[in-house]
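YM 10:42: Saccharopine dehydrogenase-like oxidoreductase sequence, as discussed on the call
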Amino acid sequence: MNNPTQIANPRILMIGAGGVATVAAYKIVQNLDVFGEFMIASRRKAKCDELVNAIHAKGYKADIKTAQVDADDVEQLKALFSEFKPDLVINLALPYQDLTIMDACLACGCNYLDTANYEPKDEAHFEYSWQWAYKEKFEQAGLTAILGCGFDPGVSQAFTAYAAKHYFDEIHYLDIVDCNAGNHHKAFATNFNPEINIREITQKGLYYENGEWVETEPLAVHQDITYPNIGPRDSYLMHHEELESLVKNFPTIKRARFWMTFGQQYLTYLDVIQNLGMSRIDEIEYEAPLADGSGKTEKVKIVPLQFLKAVLPNPQDLGENYDGETSIGCRIRGIKDGKETTYYVYNNCKHQDAYNETGMQGVSYTTGVPAMIGAMMFVKGLWRKPGVWNLEDFDPDPFMEQLNKQGLPWHEEFDKDIEL
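YM 10:58: structure's back
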């Protein structure tokens, strides 16, 4: 059962100080009637302090604590959690660090929320199995873990749950469609961490049909999809983690797919990066000249994709000149009262609106806002039950209501051609 009691003056610890974390921090300080003490921790404390200074420069008076922590180190995490005693840890670090943070939460009696599921550093592969394996541990500890509370995953699952609750007796076909029609005016840049982004896009595609998972070559399946206020865009079938939980939680689904748009220039650069070996995630040995000018060299090991990340534009710095908008939603076909019906629910987010409010572009905004709302749902007692949960395991209605209030209003279309 959900616990309806709100936590008074809750202590919130957010790990991460990148673009998504920046948006989530702004949104937390805009809702201090719900949230209490707030700490931001990251590998570099100076980055946390810069974020706090930016928030104060916008006129927010919140008292925000900062700390240094290595999220790969369970003992460091435990020391920080034991000192600050958070009611909820919001993990906005890297997906590699989900399990260490969950381990520290279990050790210190903290509840947990993240926006992306775990993936190992040495393999470009992500699935929920690693985190779902923690379900019994969190149940026994009486702690809540909320997985994937961004937009996709996250809002896409709340959209689906909302559709199932209000408009369908059975969902048969689900297509999650994600378009970024923005322009950051860079030759090549990724909208979130380049290492994670490129690993995700270069994987094989995967979709669900008639009880089986069907694999496709990377970006091999694509078609034009028409997005509201944007028009038709070439959209590519990809593997995305929320499909894994949605087909489990809505067993009437016959087919579930995820589509994302990419411009031709982006794909050309991506092709070159792969052909040059710069998307590799294995270590290579490189003989590097020493910086002291002695002419001596030393053998060092580098991961090509991590090196590429170091020379690409920082996604946090894209917002100022970013124009256009995103459009993300769910196109659903199924049965209501014996009749076939279609439903399309979506949000459009303008990059400049996101930048004006938080200094970040729309992709960070559409992930950071739902992370804050998920934390709000937990604090209010609306989404609180021991175990490890995906968003569709909770009542979508209060979450959907807050999307409209917190900057991500959604729109509905009924019984129209959903193209897919």
